[in-house]
Input
Amino acid sequence: MTSADAIFREVAAERRMASVPLSHLSIELGHLYREDFTAGLDLQQHFERVAPWVNAGRQAYAERPGRQHQKGRQTRTRVSTCFLVDDYFMRFSSPAELVPKLVSAAHAAGLEIDYLVRESGCADTGEVALARCVEGRLVVDPPAATNGSRPPVTETGWLCNGQRSPVNPEPAMSPVRPWTPPIENSARRHSIFLDVQLWDENNGRRTWSCPFLAAVWQLLRLGMLRYDGAAVAVPQKWDGGFPDGWDKIPVVTQLNPTAAPFSAYRTLSLLSTKFLPIEHAVRIILSQVAIDRDVLTQVTTRSRSEGIELPPELVDRIEYVFVGSGADPPS
Output
């Protein structure tokens, strides 16, 4: 008699993980919100302000010490640019009116907008609810000596980077307990505690916060998001005039037909200083998101094949330059 070995595999192990094209660096040229538009933001002045940092970012990446060159030759640096328009919190203008202005102002400053992205797509692309997908991958970093009694983030909509200060009411006539400060996990001597609101609900309708959508935005740019193994928010080329409605253009619209890939090994965001607290919150969120191991392995393997060693932590692949001024990001 011959024996047969039974082989069992989970369904997840049978899926095919799609690969997405990757640049070396994705440079975000800015955000645009209704407040900027109605306040009469000078678009050309904005692009002129960030232009030197775009050039510096390109050069800095090309000369990055950790970048190894195969066979002694440096490969051409692939850099793409993107620009985010808020069509989620409060819609304004239209693609027909706004996109030509953006492209013209960028060209006048010597820049090219390779990809235009709608912020609403970071919540829901129409095919995939990206924000819900990322919420499902949150793995909260528990403070030391806690028992799990705190309600989960999926119930409260709040995520922090440590131990909150206790606020439980004391029974009448009980001894007064001294105040206890919040404590940051992995604090460097002193704590910088942050409690981030991810969403709120009104009449059963959820509105995602700006920091959470910005976290999804960074994951998209890093090529880290898949749905059932398939790529999401795939860039689509656009030819011809633009429509009056934002829903009539893709979530990620490729404006430059010869652009390098949208997603990249690293990201650089050129933002107003008013976005600094938002991006602090983004880093707290991303430090507690569990990325699909197959995706991480795929990107790491590809980077190493190009002689590029990436930091293991996603937040260390994200860089910023805070310049200029602009309207407050939506709350």
Residues 42 and 105 are 9 Å apart (CA to CA). Residues 1-13 have pLDDT under 50 and may be disordered. The chain has nine helices and 15 strands.
